[in-house]
Amino acid sequence: MPADQQAETHMISHFSFPTRIVFGPGALNELGDEAKQLAMRRPLIVTDPGVVACGLAEQILAAARRAGLAPSLFEGVDPNPVEKNVRDGLDAYRQGNCDGVIGLGGGSPLDTAKAIRLVVTHPFPLEQYDDQRDGAARIRGDLPPMIAIATTAGTGSEVGRSSVIILQATDRKTVIFSPHLMPNVALADPELTLGMPPKITAGTGLDALTHNVEAYLALGYHPLCDAIALQGARLAVQNLPRAVQNGKDLAARSNMLMAAMMGAVAFQKGLGAVHSLAHPLSSIANLHHGTTNGILLPHVLEFNRPASEDRLRDLAVEMEIVGSQASAAEAATALVARLRELLPEVGIPSTLGALGVTRDMVPQLARKAMEDACHQSNPRVCTEADMIALYDNAL
Ligand SMILES: [Zn+2]
Questions:
Q1: What distance in Å separates the CA atoms of residue 65 and residue 62, rounded to the nearest whole number?
Q2: Which of 121, 295, 383, 392 is exposed most, by the fewest CB atoms within 10 A?
């Protein structure tokens, strides 16, 4: 075991896994009971136009009314949420005389719901809560209650403690991070993910897979996260092709929803270079986060080999790609090959070039990737030249 992942004998570690999760087909039927336990009677349901268009918002409104709640609906969340969405959501909360928040959708509505919940009891502007400026110290625990209902199996924001909002004052995706932002309950009902189209299933599922793999490889002492990450990676790699090929496969959908939550719990430990390389591809080239993660993952694992072959072997054995007798070198080779094969299996191109990324964009992307904090926990140190080489390989 590498020295950096042995038990700490000279410092105190902090672990917390506090989200209540209600999981399984039909979990939505428990919405009323969960709301009552939180003394939530007039929830604001925060979602986006896509969730409304596919009928899921109406389904949740009906479930809330059946349970005796008086919900209001706010559907004004942008694909990349901005401060105005939070202000408009707060207006809707006040107008509805609401006493709690239900986030409904993928990462964007869930993150916006967390920010609305924050500003119910905390003043604007939002930049004072920026994690890069120690904003967490300004966030108290007196937020109204929140229930998170995910409709994708990817970010795991339903069990996460961060909210990502684009702010004019910082001119970037700003992370607000506090344990107080964590939803009180994640209502995880895989039936709500059955209608997700194959392309979104693939892109979001690759994000879940990458969270588990990068968390397992990340530097730092966290055996609890490691155990969750290994099992989460196994669930993701074994179930994603099934969920993409047959969207109605409830077992595959259930396993992917669980893998997404496990990934988000596990990456409390940290992420790695894949996420640092992917973030600028979203902000500069407007590409889908999970899709670019999936393309970059085999390249970064190849790069990480000298530093983490034993851990790559653990992943390959857990995923049943090799037997327990395989050497670390054989296992790492087989793992990288399997993750390359996975892309065409789930209908995602194998190169960034196929998504429109060109060689002349690489220097700017690499500079931004270095500014991103995720690679600081990557098992092998990344220089800007390494970032350039990784983008070039993935082109
Ligand atoms: Zn991610």
A1: 5
A2: 383
